[in-house]
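PROTEIN DESIGN WORKSHEET
SECTION A - STRUCTURE
LENGTH: 124
TOKENS:
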């Protein structure tokens, strides 16, 4: 079992940046590929970024590629999502997720554990 706690959300103006953090307890993050998901009202959850267990591989949804960066520090049991050049379309509740399977994926069904959602609001 792994428990995930997210922090770093809030309100930012368009063009600004935020960094989300996901701290894990109960298990070491080395055992999991990790992902960041978001869900806007009326829409399905989508994985916007994923990273392999050792951080050697990453994947990004087209909607955030080039603007968001996922990284991890396994020694601190923490995963990060750096979000740059934010636009109102990025407004959503963001979630950290852990994948106990193999490889990395942008499919939400691959993820086994989910952290508490945190609101990110981008104003124009």
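SECTION B - SEQUENCE
RESIDUE ASSIGNMENT:
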């Amino acid at each position: 079992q792994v428990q995930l706690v997210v922090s770093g959300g809030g309100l930012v103006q368009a063009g600004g940046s935020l960094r989300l953090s996901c701290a894990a307890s109960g298990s070491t993050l080395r055992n999991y590929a990790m992902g960041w998901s978001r869900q806007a009202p009326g829409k399905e959850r989508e994985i916007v970024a994923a990273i392999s267990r050792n951080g050697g591989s990453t994947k990004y949804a087209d909607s955030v590629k080039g603007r968001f960066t996922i990284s991890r520090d396994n020694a601190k049991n923490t995963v990060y999502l750096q979000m740059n050049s934010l636009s109102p379309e990025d407004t959503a509740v963001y979630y950290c997720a852990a994948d106990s399977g193999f490889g990395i994926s942008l499919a939400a069904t691959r993820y086994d554990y989910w952290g508490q959602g945190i609101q990110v609001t981008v104003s124009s």
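SECTION C - NOTES
The first strand starts at residue 3 and ends at 7.
The two ends are 40 Å apart (CA to CA).
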